[in-house]
Amino acid sequence: MCDNYVPIVIIGAGPAGIAAALQLQREEIPFIILSNDVGGCVKNAFLIENLITYPLGVSGVNLSETLEKVISQHNIPIIFCQVKSIDYEDERFLIKTDEKKYTSSYLILAIGSIPSKLNISGEKIAYEDHLLNYEIKNTNIQNKTIAIIGGGDVAFDYALNLVNKNNKIFILVRSSNIKALPRLQALVRSHKLIKVITNFPVDKISVIDKSVRLWSTSSSSNEKRSINVDHIFVAIGRHPNQLLIESKIREIKDKLIFKKRLYIIGDFAHSKFRQISIAMGDGIQAAMKLSKIWVRNRQNKRENLKL
Ligand SMILES: Cc1cc2nc3c(=O)[nH]c(=O)nc-3n(C[C@H](O)[C@H](O)[C@H](O)COP(=O)(O)OP(=O)(O)OC[C@H]3O[C@@H](n4cnc5c(N)ncnc54)[C@H](O)[C@@H]3O)c2cc1C
């Protein structure tokens, strides 16, 4: 067995992973979190208005700072690393990170979702030239002209976030169907610096010096249109994190869940219901289920010692 054995490992420090950690800490059950950041997807959000503990709403940045405080205030053990693969052998999870290997008896997977790509010509070059991003977190773009591709909540949320940094925004929507919440649409439309362009399916990106040109071809008339901007954000949806798919345990995932060894929680578990409160509730529930197992195992050990 490798040296770094911990009974319970949580992968991911977004709302789901941190809620699970806080509950385990309250119940004095040993665990560690392995994560490459704290806050996860929350950091992308402009204004979160559906958490009942924040009647006036809270920005993603502020909520993420609160999550960091939870970690420090409660001395939650967290190791910052990138988890590369997960295996399962001899009743132990084998977790490889970019630096070390860990083993555990139980695993809570709270690894969230990843943004979808357009898969069009020029996208990769623009990304590599730092002219295109999929997430707002860890970016600080100011005084630029920006195209946001997408017509859902995330695209509109990104626009409200970026317009506050004195950027001029074009939201490019593929069809005439805008899916963003009416409230987000109303907020966007109240900003002079944000323009929504519908029926603009982007099919090609060209990098020109330090700017980018987005091309669109009309399906009815074949007419080509283009728009030139300094930066692009792609917000066309998210899909579950690939870590499990690329790991060997994917084949026995259902068996491990049935055996109460593996807990899949948060956005990674519910691709259609990606919400902070659901992720947090999942975290608490997984930790409480594990706590019952922990207490039962401890009682069994005591009784065996008595015999
Ligand atoms: C723009 C935007 C606005 C939003 N607005 C709202 C809102 O108003 N209200 C609401 O309820 N929800 C909102 N959401 C959704 C909300 O952010 C998510 O539901 C929530 O963050 C999910 O939490 P999670 O812990 O499941 O996953 P995440 O927050 O995605 O956390 C996953 C964690 O896993 C880590 N991780 C992943 N892979 C690895 C790896 N291989 N190695 C190490 N660490 C890894 C990540 O770094 C991260 O810490 C919004 C999302 C976006 C993008």
What does this structure look like?
With 307 residues, this protein is of the alpha/beta class. The protein folds into two domains: 8-115 and 238-306, FAD/NAD(P)-binding domain, CATH 3.50.50.60; 123-234, FAD/NAD(P)-binding domain, CATH 3.50.50. It has seven helices and 18 strands. The strands form five sheets. The chain has a five-stranded parallel sheet with strand order 3-2-1-7-18. Strands 9-16-10-11-12 form a five-stranded parallel sheet. Helix 4 (153-163) packs parallel to helix 5 (182-189). The protein is elongated, with a radius of gyration of 22 Å. The mean pLDDT is 94. The structure holds flavin-adenine dinucleotide. Flavin-adenine dinucleotide is lined by residues 11-17, 34-37, 40-42, 44-45, 48-50, 82-83, 110-113, 154, 157, 241, 243, 266-268, 274-277, 279.
